[in-house]
Protein 1
Amino acid sequence: MSSQILAQIEDVLDTIRPALHADGGDVELVEFDEEGFVHLEMHGACGGCPMSTATLSLGIEAELRRQIPEVEGVITV
């Protein structure tokens, strides 16, 4: 997929990371597939947090979809 879209995804994640770091966690971009899904891996406290699903869908996915029209959704790996 386009390196421009990957760069846009990283830029959005960079705006979200400070909040994740404040809670002892982080997020890593694994891939952006042909169907428009962003595959992310949660690290640190976010990896085992029961709220990570809400963080992904209500926070990260919503922001990625708002800023990048090509993003259809987010998948946790």
Protein 2
Amino acid sequence: MKYHVQPTNQEQVMRENDFIVSKTDTKGVLTYANRIFIEFSKYSEDELIGKQHNIIRHPDMPRGVFKLLWDTLSQQQEIFAYVKNMSKDGGFYWVFANVTPSYNPEGKVIGYYSVRRKPKPGSIDVISGLYKEMLMAEQKAGSKNAIEASLELVTNILTDKGISYEEFILSI
């Protein structure tokens, strides 16, 4: 079943000790969602398991962020990112995510494990401004070149600052 959710301005703020945990297969299909994920997403466990993780993707999130995430994971590296998610009722919640590959005993990637927590105060102001710029670059470039345009914008900003993506994310 496909859900058509209309975004609202209703924000849910994570509590200090909350950890949203999920597991997916290598294609991003949810195989596990903890009770905090279920609470914030407002989907039932049955509505989540077996669905694409992007069921909670907010339209304010630039496509370039997810390209960076998947490119990093494909290199069997962990990634940190700020993500604005959308719950089933259209509300939103910000998370600071850490996503890592999961391996079988033979060392083959079999999925991904993500732990999200409440973002640091002030980090959302910084990251939401960047994401707005990325979205504008994506819209200006058009669908075909959107991802490349937003990634180029981020690369140029980081080059000007003389820092890596990870250094930037962990510094805000």
Protein 3
Amino acid sequence: MQIKLFTIPVSDTGVFTDELNRFLQANKILEVENHLISNENGAVWCFCVKFIEAAWTNNPGERSKIDYKNELEPGVFEVFSKLRAARKQVAVEDFEDLKI
């Protein structure tokens, strides 16, 4: 897991926001924290992004598989595994409902 910090002035014309959005789209995002900081010089949004760097293959738009057990902390991976199993069960049940 890696961390990247972004600071975006409240008066941003979109340049800094676009940079943040490009980053979010290009990586596996685990968590985003944000805070509005203001002082006599103005106000800025501060974003702390926890992410896993996307591993791209030679085929555009296709990502290689990530071993989340190696990438996530043990407690986080346990929750991730439970959520993934629940999502799979819902998908199986939905698929069975579609059968004629």
Protein 4
Amino acid sequence: MLMENATNVRKEWSSVVDSVMHDKPKLIKRTRDRMWLSNLETMKEILDIYIFTAEKYTESDGSVTLSLNEIDLVENAPSEAEARLCMGQAIMEYAMEYYDEYQLYSKAPNRKGHVPYVFKALITDDPKKLGEDIVCQDGKN
């Protein structure tokens, strides 16, 4: 089987980490627990299919509101570029809060599906890039 025993992993920790970093991820078992160990580049590739999308609204005062589809976040700013930056910051703040409260949030029915987006944000670790990468569609006012 592909699963490596946790006792062996612990004994050979340094070589296991080297293998994960330079070769491939590891599947590890400890009694009934199963886990995955990989480098962040592999996780980035896995999470690449998760894309943040938003409805974009131009308000009567000319400001721009973005309403994120994947997570219930809304940001308004004088321009789209500023709204994207604000949304990137809001995504990062939410991701950090989610991670801090992981036991609660990951089990809540309305937040459970946020897990891949949270880890994408945490691994990206750049609010500006998160905001720039949002795919916007014009919303209907």
